[in-house]
Amino acid sequence: MTGFLNGRSESRYPKPERRGPKPPKPIVRTKRPRFRMPAVYGDHRARHKYALGLWAKLIKAKEPSGVCPACMKRRWVESAHCFIKGRYRALSLELDNGAPLCRACHRAIDCDQHAKREFFVAYIGPDKYERLRLLALARAKMDLGLTIMLLEAESRERGLL
Asked: Phi/psi zone of residue 112: left (φ > 0), alpha (ψ -120 to 50 degrees), beta?
C-alpha cells in the first residue's frame, strides 16, 4: 500500500539505484569493406560529378533572361532533369534533358509526372521529347569520357569555361 509522508507519496517498492553508463559494444564487422578503384584508373564518380556541373552550367545558359520558364516570375537557380538521372544514367548529361527552374517550380514539377511531361513537351518541343523518351526506353549506356569532351567543347563554344 501506498502511504502519505511529508507531502510526498511513498511507494511500496523503492526506486532502484541509478547505474553508470553502459559499456560500449564492440564493433563487429560482418561484411568486408567495399573495394575502391585506385585514382590511377580514374575516379568515375568524380568525373561524373564534374560532368554534371558542366551540364548544369549549359542548361542555365539556355535561358539567358534569368527568369524561370515555368512560372515566369522568379529567377531560376536549379537545373531540372526531364528523365531522372538515377534511373536513366545515359540521359543524365543530355542537354535536351534539362531546363533551368526556380526551386519552387522544380519541386512542383518533380512531384507531378503529368505536369513534368507537359512542361518539357512545351519547353523542348514534342519531337525532342519523343526522342528522349525513346532513348530512355532503350536503356543504352554512355561513354563518360566522350560526353565530358562534348560538354567541354560546348562550354568553350558558349564562353562558359
From this structure: beta
The helix/strand/coil state of 74 is coil
Q: How far apart are CA 137 and CA 97, in angstroms?
A: 14
- Three-class SS of residue 98? strand
Per-residue pLDDT reduced to its tens digit, 91-135? 999 999 999 999 999 999 999 999 999 999 999 999 999 999 999
Sign of the Cα pseudo-torsion (65, 67, 68, 73, in order)? negative
pLDDT digit string (tens) for 32-84? Answer: 555 443 344 568 888 888 899 999 999 999 888 889 999 999 888 899 999 99
Q: What is the dihedral of CA 134, 135, 138, 140, to 10 degrees?
A: 180
All 3 cell numbers of residue 117? 511531361
**Pairs from 115-123 (Cβ < 8 Å, separation ≥ 24):** 116/82, 119/70, 120/82, 123/69, 123/99
**How many Cα neighbours within 13 Å face the side chain of 66?**
1
Q: Which residue has the cell 549549359?
A: 58
